[in-house]
Amino acid sequence: METVNSSASWDVIVIGGGAAGLSAALLLGRARRRTLVIDAGSPRNRFAAHMHGVLGNEGASPSGLLRRGREEVAGYGVETRDGAVAGVRDEGDVLVVAVDGAEERTRALVVASGIDDDLPAVAGLAERWGTSVLHCPYCHGWEVRDRRLAVLATSPASLHQAKMVRQWSDDVVLFSAGLGGLDPSDERLLRARGIEIVASPAVEVLGEGTTVSAIRTADGAEIPVDAVFTGGRPVPHDGFLDDLRLARADLPSGLGSFVQADATGRTSHPRIWAAGNVVNPMATVPMAIGAGAMAGAGVNGTLVEEDFRLVAGALSPAAR
Ligand SMILES: Cc1cc2nc3c(=O)[nH]c(=O)nc-3n(C[C@H](O)[C@H](O)[C@H](O)COP(=O)(O)OP(=O)(O)OC[C@H]3O[C@@H](n4cnc5c(N)ncnc54)[C@H](O)[C@@H]3O)c2cc1C
What is the pTM of this model? Predict the structure, then answer.
């Protein structure tokens, strides 16, 4: 098919081949856009063997979903390349993407590069992440329902996490040191629903292999638990966008600064969309898939309009 604007090799480069990025690429490939996915290969949920809350893929493996996703997008001519994007340069009508010592030129970008979870520095915690140390009760709460569940507070937002986890078990213990103080009225609420509160800081997660049997606190106590919920600090993979100075916003509950994107994924740059955890750390897999699809459609709709202006020769520099 004839392509418009040949100075760029690609219509769209998708940075990140997780749920959001591959979903955007699926839309774009089917829309006959020359699309390249560049993926560093470390999806956030790589620590978990099974996914939950993902319609049609309940209990499936995260890596299996992405493998199938890569096959599906390849069927529509999308190229997927392993690599880590290091920077993006704005040349007006074209964005230049630096990846592993090479450069790729594209008309538009979908940024879907996810986040890292910066976990609390408690011995024995990181090696159990995704198996018995968990972050999301919607993803893993059912599997540990009615068990003795710990909530290890890391920020004021952990108060809500403790209340959430209570939905899955009557037996919840909150390690409150990370809250930075517990308001007496909040304490009353928690105790009213039977949540036990331990004030001494957690220092070690104990258990055989990747299971959890107890949490040791600074005062030497060992409190028996079967699973731990906690929140890592979300760190977006967006440093490669720094030179473009995209608008950012502080997310509520102290989650930190993230690139701003509207409901269609559009950022403050007219050629850049963003989707999934990189702009919304709360997004689960189906939410990331939805956001990626939305961004893919948003990019294509914008390029469609530009194609007509370009071909008609009506695109003045001021209109770009
Ligand atoms: C332990 C754990 C278990 C989870 N379980 C569930 C579950 O059961 N159900 C559920 O719905 N959700 C679950 N989640 C949430 C799920 O991981 C996210 O919703 C999902 O990964 C978000 O998709 P994404 O595409 O935005 O990001 P990711 O899946 O993280 O994909 C981003 C991709 O971009 C790549 N990338 C990063 N930087 C660059 C770069 N510079 N250049 C190129 N590529 C780059 C990464 O390597 C990665 O492959 C879980 C999360 C964790 C931490």
Answer: 0.95
